[in-house]
Amino acid sequence: MATLGLSQFVSGPTHQAGHTLDLIFGVGIDVIMFPSMKVPWSDHYALKARIDVPPPPCLGGEPIWARPQRLMDPDRFRQALRDLSPPGDSLTELVEGWNTQLLAAINEIAPKRPLRPRRNRAPWFTEELRKMKRDLRRLE
User: Which is nearest to 35 in space by CA: 24, 51, 46?
Assistant: First the structure.
């Protein structure tokens, strides 16, 4: 593990038989280990550690523009469709005119609002972990 630059933070037995089976590795983090505790439901000890890592930088960049679903009103949109006037005679005029009028109606009903990207508060809680928890609950 040293060749990969990893540090091991567990330094005692983690199993009832006196073996060290459960490990905590890290790179560039501060870990304060607390004494391991026996738990009645397992032959492994519970490891307790305080891991100090700097928070990830906030995601910056440009906002994402989206229409809030709570503002979308199908009845108002239907009324806006009824109020549309024929934009022209040629196919190009019809398409451009309908696009312009529909976009104006949608912007009036549910205007776009900026959404700022938020950082992931639990980056360790992946979709794989979520599926494992679902399966565990199903099996209980």
Answer: 46
